[in-house]
C-alpha cells in the first residue's frame, strides 16, 4: 500500500524544540510538599516573596509550613515556525513529595531552551486527570495525581529561526534508512513534479530542487508531501519485550530446520512435509514438544509455545537460540 511522503520522511530543519522551567503550584488543599523534606520549595517561595517586596529572615524562611504549595517542573514543546504570542500546552509535574496537584495554580514560570534563553512564559490552573466518581457516585477512582496539564497555558516570547532549505535545495530525511524506499520516493516525486526535481543522496536523505520565493516553496512542499510512495518491504524483524511478554513480528520472518531444547520444552523445525493432518505445527501437550514444518509461521510457533506454558523468558531464550543457530531468518530486537 502506498504512503504519503509526509508519513515516511521529515523535512530537514523543521523540528520541535523542548522547553523546561522550574515553578511552584499554589492553592492546593493540603496536598503540597512537606517542606521539611523539600527545602527547595521553601527557598523558591522565599525568592518569589522577596521579588514582591516581602523579605523574610532566614529563621522565618526555615519555619514556613507550605502544605498548599508544591515545587514542579514545567515542560512544553515549541513547534517549528512558532511566533511570539502563540499559545502552547504545558505539562506540570511534581518534583517533591506532594500528594496531588489537583486544584492548584501554576505561578508565572519561565520556560527555557537548551541554550538557556527564555522562549516562553507559563501560568494557569492545573488540570489533573485520573480522579472521578463511579456509577451513582458510590465509588471514587484515583490514579496518578502528581502531574497535570494546562491547555494553552504558555505564551511564546521568542521565536526560533527555521532555515527552510539552503542553496536552492530542500532535503527530506526518511524515518528509517532504506535505499529501496529512497529510490521509490525519488521516482514518485520526479513523476509528479517533473524529472530532475528530486535526487537521492544516500539511503536516508533526498534533495529537492525548490523554487526561490517563500510563497512558491510553501506551495511546492504542499504538493510534494502528499505524493504517494510505495515503501519498500521492511526487513524481517522480531521484537520481544520480556517485561510484558509481547512478541511482535512482520510478514518476512521465516524459520529454517533446527532443533531447540529448553528445560522441559523442545522445538523441532522439520525440513520435510507439514505435520499430520496438514498442520504446520504439531503440539505434544504431554511431552512439552513442538514439531514444526519448515516455512511455518513464527506466530504459530509462539502461540503453540504459550499453550505449553512457556513464559516470556522462555520465549526469549528459544528465539535467541534459533537466531544464534541461523534458523530464525530475521533480526531479533529485545526492548
UniProtKB/TrEMBL annotation:
Pfam families in UniProt: FlgI
Location relative to the cell: Bacterial flagellum basal body
Main location group: other
Ranges annotated as spanning the membrane: none
Record's keyword terms, sorted: Bacterial flagellum, Cell projection, Cilium, Flagellum, Signal
Listed InterPro entries: Flag_FlgI (IPR001782)
Top-level division of the source organism's lineage: Bacteria
Function: Assembles around the rod to form the L-ring and probably protects the motor/basal body from shearing forces during rotation.
UniProt family annotation: Belongs to the FlgI family.
Oligomeric and partner information: The basal body constitutes a major portion of the flagellar organelle and consists of four rings (L,P,S, and M) mounted on a central rod.
PANTHER family membership: FLAGELLAR P-RING PERIPLASMIC PROTEIN FLGI, FLAGELLAR P-RING PROTEIN
Protein's name in the database: Flagellar P-ring protein
Source lineage: Bacteria, Pseudomonadati, Pseudomonadota, Betaproteobacteria, Rhodocyclales
Gene: flgI
Amino acid at each position: 500500500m502506498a504512503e504519503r511522503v509526509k508519513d515516511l520522511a521529515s523535512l530537514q530543519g523543521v523540528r520541535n524544540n523542548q522547553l523546561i522551567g522550574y515553578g511552584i503550584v499554589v492553592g492546593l488543599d493540603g496536598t503540597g510538599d512537606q517542606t521539611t523534606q523539600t527545602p527547595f520549595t521553601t527557598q523558591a517561595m522565599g525568592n518569589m516573596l522577596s521579588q514582591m517586596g516581602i523579605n523574610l529572615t532566614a529563621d522565618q524562611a526555615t519555619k514556613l509550613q507550605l502544605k498548599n504549595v508544591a515545587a514542579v517542573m514545567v515542560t512544553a514543546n515549541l513547534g517549528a515556525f512558532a511566533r511570539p504570542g502563540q499559545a502552547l500546552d504545558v505539562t506540570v509535574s511534581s518534583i517533591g513529595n506532594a500528594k496531588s496537584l489537583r486544584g492548584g495554580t501554576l505561578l508565572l514560570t519561565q520556560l527555557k531552551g537548551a541554550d538557556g534563553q527564555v522562549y516562553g512564559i507559563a501560568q494557569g490552573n492545573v488540570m489533573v486527570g485520573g480522579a472521578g466518581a463511579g456509577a451513582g457516585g458510590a465509588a471514587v477512582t484515583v490514579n496518578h495525581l502528581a502531574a497535570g496539564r494546562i491547555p494553552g497555558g504558555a505564551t511564546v516570547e521568542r521565536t526560533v529561526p527555521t532555515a527552510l532549505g539552503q542553496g536552492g535545495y530542500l532535503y527530506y530525511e526518511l524515518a528509517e534508512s532504506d535505499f529501496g524506499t529512497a529510490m521509490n520516493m525519488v521516482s514518485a516525486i520526479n513523476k509528479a513534479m517533473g524529472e530532475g526535481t528530486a535526487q537521492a543522496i544516500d539511503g536516508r536523505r533526498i534533495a529537492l530542487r525548490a523554487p526561490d520565493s517563500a510563497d512558491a516553496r510553501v506551495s511546492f512542499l504542499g504538493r510534494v508531501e502528499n505524493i504517494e510512495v510505495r515503501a519498500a518491504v521492511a526487513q524481517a524483524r522480531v521484537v520481544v519485550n520480556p517485561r510484558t511478554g509481547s512478541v511482535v513480528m512482520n510478514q518476512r520472518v521465516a524459520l529454517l530446520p533446527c532443533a531447540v531444547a529448553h528445560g522441559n520444552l523442545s522445538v523441532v523445525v522439520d525440513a520435510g512435509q507439514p505435520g499430520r493432518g496438514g498442520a504446520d505445527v504439531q503440539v505434544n501437550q504431554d511431552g512439552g514438544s513442538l514439531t514444526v514444518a519448515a516455512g511455518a509461521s513464527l506466530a504459530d510457533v509462539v502461540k503453540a509455545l504459550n499453550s505449553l506454558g512457556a513464559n516470556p523468558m522462555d520465549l526469549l531464550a528459544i528465539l535467541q537460540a534459533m537466531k544464534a543457530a541461523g534458523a530464525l531468518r530475521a533480526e531479533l530486537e529485545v526492548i
